[in-house]
């Protein structure tokens, strides 16, 4: 392996790689943000929803969680088009990942909310708080602390799952890397390099999660 | 003058099990009433109905003549709107067996939450009220401690301050010393006693018979979902009228 030659090729390919990295980060961020917001509502519905709503949402999460992400990505790109919802590969991919993310976040949020003792809700009621207030000031902040470690996990999964979008032609980091390899034949070097970049993104997410955990820790 | 609290023919069931089988009770401003009885007799359930933490199927509860939780329109009894129930819950303050302090907030914040979000007071005013009440329960110096940093007795005193800072018409105490180590019971009872001497109206479910005897001006003995006997503590404890109460007192800490 010739390091100087690798660096040479890498330097020449810097713009496509950076673009791919940018696309990977955008996909992940969008999927995590939309997925988390939707997931919080899924979690709320699973915990406090009236019965028919709870059943529908339970069916949704079980179905999505039981489906491979790749199938969701392909379905979102190829199947939605047949019912008149024509999304580009980027939008279709983000939609599939966000939906996948929401079902996982929903379960995490449900678990966290259900683990909070009933007495917390009763004490909040007893001082006259309405349910939205109880959620905002009592249940939500306590659930957040419990959700964090599992949420970081899910976020990292989303970054890794973003590679699947290369299959429907989204020019994210993996696809850019593969294009580069087909031209330079330096597969070992560039797969390692791409792997390193994914690691950096996920490491940053993990550090961020730790930071928030530390910031919101309750002294005891 | 109307009664502070008026309970009429209260019925409550969990599924097929009837826990309250028609309870009547009135209470005047400044009354301190202890509810005693063996477990399963319905004393805690009755207290929780007053605060609408439990739904009840029959009868009515009024505070200052205002019906709590339900209204009857066109012969149909239905639950009031959640917002209205939330407002009515603030008419009473409640202290729980398990304290139920909010673990992610300091003692002062626990007390301030209701003042700011329900009473819509500003932060500074809420803080000064919180400090005043924490001072009253002897915990001014612990205002910025989290519940996890306080002993059980201290947590319960904060919980009482949190309830009473809302300036309720009536305080409900649900076995507030049952979860405490014996050496911590007294500090909580002292706080309740001081509140009683200030003229606070209160309803206490308790297993501390000596305390019930000393602090209350009336005692209610619950037996199998009904009021078995009631009267002033001296007569009740020394000359029980029913076999049931005599038996209960014999097995309790008062005997």
Could you explain how this protein is built, in words?
The complex is a heterodimer of chains A (220) and B (255). Chain A is mainly alpha-helical. Chain A has one domain: MetI-like (MetI-like fold), CATH 1.10.3720.10. Chain A has nine helices and no strands. The longest helix of chain A is centred in the N-terminal third of the chain and has 35 residues. The N and C termini of chain A lie far apart (55 Å). With 255 residues, chain B is an alpha/beta fold. Chain B has a single domain, classed as Rossmann fold. Chain B contains nine helices and twelve strands. Chain B has a six-stranded mixed beta sheet with strand order 8-9-10-3-11-12, sandwiched between helices. Chain B has a four-stranded antiparallel beta sheet with strand order 2-1-4-5, with helices on one face. In chain B, a hairpin with a 2-residue loop joins β1 and β2. In chain B, α4 crosses α5 and α5 runs parallel beside α6. The longest helix of chain B is centred in the C-terminal third of the chain and has 16 residues. Chain B is globular, with a radius of gyration of 18 Å. Chain B starts with a strand and ends with a helix. The chains are: A mainly alpha (220), B alpha/beta (255). Chains A and B meet through α6 and α7 of A and α2, β8, α3 and α5 of B.
- What's the CATH class of chain A, please? Mainly Alpha
Distance between the termini of chain A: 55 Å
Report strand % of chain A.
Answer: under 5%
Question: How confident is the prediction overall: mean pLDDT of chain A?
Answer: 93
Structural class of chain B: alpha/beta
**Poorly predicted ranges of chain A (pLDDT <50, ≥5 residues)?**
none
CATH fourth-tier homologous superfamily of chain A: MetI-like
| Number of helices in the DSSP assignment of chain B | 9
Structural class of chain A: mainly alpha
Largest sheet of chain B: 6 strands, mixed
CATH architecture of chain A: Orthogonal Bundle
CATH architect. name of chain B: 3-Layer(aba) Sandwich
Reading the helices and strands of chain B in chain order gives EEEHEEEEHEHHHEHEHEEHH
How many extended strands of chain A?
Answer: 0
């Amino acid at each position: 392996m010739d390091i100087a030659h690798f660096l040479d090729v890498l330097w020449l390919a810097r713009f496509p790689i950076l673009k791919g990295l940018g696309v990977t980060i955008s996909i992940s961020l969008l999927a995590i943000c939309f997925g988390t917001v939707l997931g919080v509502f899924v979690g709320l519905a699973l915990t406090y929803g009236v019965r028919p709503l709870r059943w529908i949402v339970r069916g949704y999460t079980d179905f999505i969680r039981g489906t491979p992400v790749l199938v969701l990505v392909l379905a979102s790109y190829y199947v939605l088009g047949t019912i008149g919802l024509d999304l580009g590969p980027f939008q279709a991919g983000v939609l599939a990942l966000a939906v996948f993310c929401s079902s996982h976040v929903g379960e995490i949020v449900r678990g966290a909310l259900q683990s909070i003792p009933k007495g917390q809700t009763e004490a909040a009621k007893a001082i006259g708080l309405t349910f939205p207030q109880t959620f905002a000031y009592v249940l939500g902040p306590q659930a957040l602390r419990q959700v964090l470690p599992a949420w970081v996990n899910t976020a990292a999964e989303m970054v890794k799952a973003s590679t699947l979008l290369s299959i429907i032609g989204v020019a994210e980091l993996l696809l850019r890397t593969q294009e580069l390899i087909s031209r330079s034949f330096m597969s070992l070097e560039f797969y390692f390099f791409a792997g390193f970049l994914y690691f950096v993104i996920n490491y940053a997410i993990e550090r961020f999660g730790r930071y928030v955990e530390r910031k919101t820790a309750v002294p005891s | 003058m109307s009664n502070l609290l008026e309970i009429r023919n209260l019925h409550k069931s969990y599924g097929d099990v009837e826990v309250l089988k028609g309870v009547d009770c009135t209470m005047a401003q400044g009354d301190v009433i202890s509810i005693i009885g063996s477990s399963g007799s319905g004393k805690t359930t009755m207290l929780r109905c007053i605060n609408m933490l439990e739904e009840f199927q029959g009868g009515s509860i009024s505070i200052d003549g205002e019906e709590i939780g339900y209204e009857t329109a066109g012969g149909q009894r239905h639950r009031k709107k959640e917002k209205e129930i939330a407002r009515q819950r603030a008419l009473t303050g409640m202290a729980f067996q398990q304290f139920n302090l909010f673990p992610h907030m300091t003692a002062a914040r626990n007390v301030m939450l209701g003042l700011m979000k329900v009473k819509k007071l500003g932060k500074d005013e809420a803080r000064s009220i919180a400090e005043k009440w924490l001072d009253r329960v002897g915990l001014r110096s612990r205002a910025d401690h989290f519940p996890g940093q306080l002993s059980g007795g201290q947590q319960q005193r904060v919980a009482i301050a949190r309830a009473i800072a809302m300036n309720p018409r009536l305080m409900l105490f649900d076995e507030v010393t049952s979860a405490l180590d014996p050496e911590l019971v007294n500090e909580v009872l002292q706080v309740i006693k001081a509140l009683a001497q200030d003229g606070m109206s209160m309803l206490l479910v308790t297993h501390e018979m000596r305390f019930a005897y000393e602090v209350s001006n009336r005692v209610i003995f619950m037996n199998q979902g009904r009021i078995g006997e009631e009267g002033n503590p001296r007569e009740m404890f020394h000359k029980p009228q029913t076999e049931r109460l005599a038996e209960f007192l014999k097995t309790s800490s008062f005997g």
